[in-house]
Structures are given as structure tokens and as C-alpha cells.
């Protein structure tokens, strides 16, 4: 009868120990769950924030790429316009240069500016004749002879022409009066010297073509000589006296 209380006391001690153990385990499990749940929530929040940032960066990157494409297209468009402007400007410069050259050639032909350069000199004189037995008109230089030489020189590319120092152009008036000729109101006696600025290698052969101007002058009993000149200076028409 005395042993039963001892067993009951031991049993209650074990139950108490188990209760304490279970209580401790429960507390540990509860704390662990709470800690894990809190960490998991924080991890979810971090991942959600990172995802949002990533989406934001992706959108910004896409926007920047689209902006870069717009700027690239705009740059290409402006470069094209600049290229077109440069071509147009270059073309206009070339056209302007051509027009300037043409204007200069016209001024030279009109005689409104002095001219200087290489060229050719043609001298024409009356032939010797006996007035008692020969017609003097068949042996003197007429305006037709002078005009024949001047026109041929212009056709061959002469940039300027003068007769006995008198600059002439397409509007000049040349008339024969006996042994002299009148050019734009001024009278000049023989010999008649025609100076023309241009390429001598072109002007001289043009005059000496077979059956051309020089042959025609010789047939008309005109004494004619030609000479290539390294430098000829012609006055402007406005400089005439």
C-alpha cells in the first residue's frame, strides 16, 4: 500500500516534464513560424519592389530606344536636307561661275571693258598700181575686206577686236571713203591693222583656210600679212577719243 503514492508522484513528474517540453517546443515552433512568415513577407515585398523597378527600367529603356530612333530618323532627314542644300549650292555656284564667264565674254565682245591677252595681228595695204591704166578701186582696201577679216576672227572665237587701235563690236559702223575707212565716226588711212585677242593657234588657221579669207584678199590684190602676238592690249570702246 505504501508504493502507490510513489508511482503517482513519478507519473505526475513525467507529465509535468512533458508539458514543459511541449510548451517549449510549441513556443519555438510558434516563434519560428512567425519569424519565417515575417521573412517570407519581407522577401515578397523585396521581390515585388524589384519587379516594379525592373518593369519601370524596362519601360524607360523602351522609351529611350524609341526616342533614339526618332532622333536618328530626324538626324538622317536633316543630313539629307544638308546634302541637298550643298548640292544645290554647289550647282548654283557652278551656274554662277558659268554666268560670270559668259558675262565677261559678252563684255569683251561688246568692248565695254579693256582686253589683254595673246592673239593675232592682220595688216592690210593697198597694192601698187598705175592710176592711168588701172582702176584704183581694184587695188585698194575696202570696208568689205575689213569686215571679212573681222567677222572671220569673231567666228573663230576672238574675244576682242580693234582696227588701228579703235575697238569695234557688232554694232560698229565701218564705211570706205576712197583710200580711207571710217569706223564709228573716226577716219583711218591705210595700212589697216586689225588686232584680235584669242588663241593664235585657232585664229590664224581660220584665216588661212584654203579658199578662205586670206586667199580672197590676195585675189583682190590686197597686200595682207598676219602675225601671232604674245600680248595684245585693246582699249574699251568708252575710252576712244
UniProtKB/TrEMBL annotation:
Entry's family note: Belongs to the UPF0749 family.
InterPro entries reported in the protein's UniProt record: DUF881 (IPR010273)
Keywords: Coiled coil, Membrane, Transmembrane, Transmembrane helix
Keyword field contains Transmembrane helix: yes
Gene3D superfamilies from the UniProt entry: Protein of unknown function DUF881
Signal peptide: none
Coiled-coil region(s): 54-88
Pfam families reported for this sequence: DUF881 (PF05949)
PANTHER family, A to Z: UPF0749 PROTEIN RV1825 (PTHR37313), UPF0749 PROTEIN YLXX (PTHR37313:SF2)
Lineage of the species this protein comes from: Bacteria, Bacillati, Bacillota, Bacilli, Bacillales
Transmembrane segments: 16-33
Name of protein: YlxW like protein
Species the sequence originates in: Sporosarcina newyorkensis 2681
